[in-house]
Specification:
17 helices, single chain, mainly alpha, flat
């Protein structure tokens, strides 16, 4: 009894420490976020640069956006890390298994928003979903939604462009994931899974772990999520913001308007083709989106570029190739690319 009480007391103390730390961290986060412009101005004052010059404007952009994106990323990743404890891969498979087409696609696409699995998790999740009885098309709805309707991109779009743009991005992204999954499901392409994947499908699914996590464990998971994800992502954030700063400071507005303008019909497909060879996460690509739009590029064209980078990157196609054959990869890429093109044209038409 003494040991049990000792463990319980220790757990309560640790939880109280987490809560106090979170409260202090939230205050510091809000203070830092409110001083972003002042920080960038101070950097320019120390270096003697002026925003009237191209280099000075690029430097200001970099030192304003870098802490902003890292602050948003840290906060969002922590929250989503806690949320993910309620939606583990095993539980996600259980929720999706046995669902009919249509309802299953909607549920899978919706779960993709709140389960921030990275591209390196695509293959084991793909296999796990199928082995639990999730239909192929439903699985693809999840795999499309998870990177495309990214919670980081959603929050950053909300902060930069308002709730209307964020809501339209969310709705159209979900629509692409749902419809693409339905199309792939109707094509009945299970034969294009690799043989070793099909062999795994015959095995019984592992039982779902019913262990209930405490709030201390959930908070610790959120902290670990921050260390793991932000620790890996920050170089991409710096690289993305650096490229965005270069575009912001040096790329002429006339060039951007001619390449990614609203009135150029081929701009959207060109942006999608340009995005496929690239690899970045949402936090790294958003600063580039902001810089391109600031230079006169059409929002729909830039969003099509962003979605192609996130959802159709060449590295992710290479990972998926371990589990599915080229015909299914090409079908997946073609259906998603078509959906992204529609999103780009709809944004350019409405906004």
């Amino acid at each position: 009894m003494k040991n049990i009480l000792g463990i319980a007391t220790s757990g309560n103390t640790a939880l109280a420490g987490w809560l106090v730390g979170l409260a202090a961290g939230a205050v510091l986060w809000l203070v830092a976020y409110s001083q972003l412009t002042a920080f960038a101005d101070a950097v320019l004052a120390v270096t003697g640069l002026s925003r009237a010059t191209r280099f000075g404007e690029a430097v200001h952009f970099f030192f304003y956006d870098t802490p902003k994106v890292l602050l948003l990323l840290t906060g969002i990743v922590f929250v989503m890390g806690v949320v993910q404890t309620f939606f583990s891969p095993a539980r996600t498979r259980t929720l999706l298994a046995g669902k009919r087409e249509g309802l299953g696609n909607v549920l899978a696409a919706t779960l993709g928003i709140v389960t921030p699995f990275c591209s390196c998790s695509a293959v084991p999740l793909f296999i796990g979903f199928l082995s639990a009885g999730v239909p192929l098309g439903v699985t693809f709805s999840f795999l499309i939604s998870a990177p495309m309707v990214n919670e980081v991109a959603l929050v950053l779009l909300f902060g930069m462009f308002g709730w209307q743009v964020a809501a339209l991005y969310l709705g159209l992204g979900l629509l692409v994931a749902i419809v693409a999954g339905l199309v792939i499901g109707r094509l009945r392409m299970e034969a294009h899974l690799e043989d070793w994947v099909q062999a795994i499908l015959a095995r019984p699914a592992a039982a779902v772990d019913g262990e209930q996590l405490s709030w201390l464990q959930r908070l610790q998971t959120g902290g670990a999520h921050v260390r793991e994800i932000v620790g890996k992502v920050w170089p991409y954030v710096l690289a993305g913001i650096g490229l965005g700063a270069g575009i912001h400071g040096y790329v002429p507005e006339d060039f951007m308007a001619s390449f990614m303008g609203r009135d150029v019909w081929w701009a959207v497909p060109a942006a999608v083709l340009l995005g496929v060879p690239m690899y970045s996460n949402a936090a790294g690509i958003i600063p580039i989106v902001e810089a391109l739009i600031g230079k006169g590029a059409a929002l729909g064209t830039v969003l099509a570029f962003m979605m192609a980078v996130i959802a159709l990157s060449a590295p992710e196609m290479i990972i998926l190739r371990k589990a599915i054959r080229p015909t299914l990869i090409a079908t997946f890429a073609g259906v998603v690319a078509f959906g992204i093109l529609l999103v780009g044209y709809v944004f350019n038409w409405l906004l």
